[in-house]
Structure formats: C-alpha cells, structure tokens
Write a structure and sequence with these properties.
The strands form four sheets. Strands 4-12-11-10-7-5-6 form a seven-stranded mixed sheet, with helices on both faces. The chain has a four-stranded mixed sheet with strand order 1-2-3-15. The longest helix is centred in the last third of the chain and has 22 residues. It has 404 residues and is α/β, with parallel strands linked by helices. The protein contains 13 helices and 17 strands. α3 runs antiparallel to α10 and α11 runs parallel beside α13. It has two domains: 152 residues, Aspartate Aminotransferase, domain 1, CATH 3.90.1150.10; 231 residues, Type I PLP-dependent aspartate aminotransferase-like (Major domain) (Aspartate Aminotransferase, domain 2, 3-Layer(aba) Sandwich), CATH 3.40.640.10. The structure holds pyridoxal-5'-phosphate. Pyridoxal-5'-phosphate binds next to α5.
Length: 404
C-alpha cells in the first residue's frame, strides 16, 4: 500500500504526540465520507463496514443530519442545563415514546450512560432507605472505560491495571441460567446485560436467559439494566434489541448511533426507577445540549422517513444469509456466523483476522475484528443491497488467499 505525503506527515506527528491507546493503525487517514463510503487522503474510497463502531447509522455526510447540525449551530450550540432547550425536551419525549420508558437523562458517551444507570439503580434503593449495592453483570461483557463501567465489564484486562476499582460488581458466565439464578438475591441492586455482547465477538444472549433475568429481577426487586449502547438505535432490526426478547427493562442505555456521529448518550428509565435521582444527584455540563439533541432528532427523522430500522432488518438478513452461504462453501475457513440485523460476526478457523482485514482494505473495504479470529461488521444502516454481492466475492477471494 502506498503512503502519500499527507499521510506520512500525519503518521510522523501522531507517533510523536498522540497518546496511543489503539495500537498500530492501518496506513489510512480519513478525509471525508459520502453515504456508505469513506475517502482517504490517498484519494481511494472504501466501503465502510465498521460505521465508526456502530455510530454512523446514517452513513457519512447525510444531508438531513448535516443540515440539522448546521441549523442548530447557527441558533445555539450550548446553553447549560440551567435552562430549557427544546431539542433536549423533544428528544426525551421521542425516546420515551419509542421505548416505553418515561424518563431520559442525557450524557455524552456510552460509558457515561452506563455510569448513570449504575448510579440510578443504587440511588433508587438508597432513596427507599434500604440501600443495595451489588450489580451482577456477565463475563465477557463490555460496559465502558470509566472506573465503574470498567469494573462492571466482565473482562479483567480492561480494569486490572487501574485498581482499586469501585466495589459492588460480580460477574457470571454469560447465558448460564444456573449461575444467574445463584447470583441474584434480595441483596442484588441490578442485573446489567448486553442483549448481544459486541466487544467480545458478537455473542447473542439466549431468549430464555434475558427472560430469566427479568423474572429474577421481578422476584427480588432488583433493577434490570439493558445496555443497548451498541445494539440499540435499530442496529438489530428493532429500535432496541431487547424488543427481540420481549422483555421490558427498568433501565436502558443508549449512545453510539443516537447522534449519528455527534457524541451523545442517554439513560432511560421507568417512572419508579427514576426516583433514584433527585435534583443534585447527577449532572453533566455538555449532556443534552441543543446541538447533540438536534442531531439525534434528525437521525430519528431519517429513520422514520427512510424506514431505516426495517431496512437494517432486511439488509442484515441478506448479509447474514450470504455469510452463511460462504460458510457452507468453506466450513474450515468460516466456523460460525453470529449476530442480528447489521451487527454480524464471522468466526474464522484460524487466527488471521488482522491479515483478512488488511487484505480487505487493499480491496477497498473497512471491516472490524475482535481478538485474532473474529471479523465484525457494523455497517451504516443505509447499506445498499447492491454492495453485498461484490463484498462476498472479495471476502471469499481474500479468505481463500489468507486461510488455506
Ligand atoms: C455495549 C457497550 N457499552 C458501553 C460502551 C462504551 O461506550 P463509549 O465508548 O461511548 O463510552 C460500548 C462501546 O463499545 C459498548 O459496546
């Protein structure tokens, strides 16, 4: 791959000054985007199958989103939460209607939304004069990088170096009903789960597992927190992936796709659980500012106008089927295909995800990976049908090249 002069300069400066938490990046500096395509400073275009890690739900440079951001910026970008701002109120009302959870608080990221969810669940019991601290989460989960959300995350590599961690978190094997039954008691404050564990390789929860979590929470009074930061916003073909499981959580967290790329996170709760916060208990300087909320309103407008949730379900099904067919042809190369909607993964037969990613990039595709042997696809929900067939042809060629 050739490295142009702009890219060379960027790489050199980056190596000197950027505090690298992401490892070696491929030699690509993104300059602009259009729809599902990203363009590098090398002038090449790439089909974006990562979507900013499930963020760019409308793809790039969507005219409706760009206009909403520009119009709101020309009015007021930020004004603090001391005053009302109509995009915030309208967005809260709209999310409440979409989810059936009446109260919404806005932050700026997924970790912040989960941090708020943990505080809200504990505040709920504290306000009742019978404090509960224990939060049960799953092994291999991912809930964020703040100290509390890293402690909630069931992967010690994200938290161990930063001990001491906030106490009160325990982890159970995912999809293990017996372990969940044994872990939840009258002392449990909340059970916190992802409907599909994204960061550990796209592992869906069993229907019975999520339903059991709801039942156990009902029996013990514990709050059920569903982390929809990656699975929400229509990614799985429903507005919330939890809807696939037919359970109503007490608390839901959203971020990633909510602002279509503008940072925003949200914690949603039912009226009862919301009593965990009273004025002064929580806050955010930027959270819920007019710019971010206007962007999120525009994202939801486009969802309605373009039927994007239905599109994600349909396109996801087509892509999954195409990957299944590829697996059938090459069972030793693709060992499993997992996921729902446009949140999909291929488990490779060999630890060659990095080589596959880089060979795909040379052919004009940006795809994600988890660990050494999982390819992850999180494309924009606007992914056109006609991109699927050429993608599969190129993927097959690359897989045959890299894994023999
Ligand atoms: C399920 C889940 N929760 C929380 C987070 C953290 O979100 P953020 O990176 O916006 O803090 C992520 C990020 O990947 C996630 O996938």
């Amino acid at each position: 791959m050739t490295i142009d002069k702009t890219l060379q300069t960027i790489i050199e400066l980056d190596q000197k000054h950027y505090l690298n938490c992401f490892g070696t990046r491929p030699p690509l500096c993104i300059e602009r985007g259009e729809g599902v395509w990203l363009y590098g400073t090398d002038g090449r275009r790439y089909l974006d199958l990562i979507g900013g890690i499930a963020v760019n739900v409308l793809g790039h440079n969507h005219p409706r989103l760009v206009r909403a951001i520009a119009d709101q910026a020309a009015k007021v970008i930020h004004c603090s939460n001391y005053y009302y701002n109509s995009p915030q109120t309208l967005l809260a009302a709209r999310l409440a209607k979409l989810t059936g959870l009446d109260r919404v608080f806005f932050g700026n990221s997924g970790a912040e939304a989960n941090e708020a969810a943990i505080k809200l669940a504990r505040g709920y019991f504290y306000k009742q004069g019978r404090p509960r601290q224990q939060i049960v989460t799953a092994l291999q989960s991912f809930h964020g990088r703040t100290l509390a959300t890293a402690a909630a995350t069931g992967q010690p590599q994200y938290s161990q170096p930063f001990a001491p961690l906030p106490p009160g978190f325990s982890h159970v094997p995912f999809n293990d009903q017996k372990a969940l039954r044994e872990a939840v008691s009258d002392a449990t404050c909340a059970v916190m789960l992802e409907p599909i564990q994204g960061e550990s390789g796209v592992h869906p929860a069993d229907l019975e597992y999520i339903q059991l979590a709801r039942t156990l929470c009902d029996q013990t009074g514990a709050r059920l927190i569903i982390d929809e930061i990656q699975t929400g916003m229509g990614r799985t073909g429903r507005f919330l992936a939890g809807q696939l499981y037919q359970v109503k959580p007490d608390i839901v967290t959203l971020a990633k796709g909510l602002g279509g790329g503008v940072p925003i996170g949200a914690v949603l709760a039912d009226e009862t659980t919301s009593s965990g916060f009273v004025p002064g208990d929580h806050g955010s300087t930027f959270g819920g500012n007019p710019l971010a909320c206007a962007a999120a309103m525009a994202v939801l407008d486009v969802y309605e106008e373009e039927g994007l949730i239905e599109a994600a379900a349909q396109r996801g099904q087509q892509l999954k089927q195409a990957l299944y067919d590829l697996r059938k042809k090459h069972p030793h190369i693709i060992q499993a295909v997992r996921g729902a909607g446009l949140m999909l993964a291929c488990e490779l037969g060999e630890p060659q995800a990095a080589a596959v990613k880089s060979a795909m990039m040379a052919r004009g595709y940006l795809i994600g990976s988890v660990g050494t042997s999982v390819l992850r696809l999180l494309p924009p929900l606007i992914l056109p049908e006609e991109t699927i067939a050429p993608l599969i042809v190129d993927l097959e060629a690359v897989l045959k090249e890299v894994i023999s």
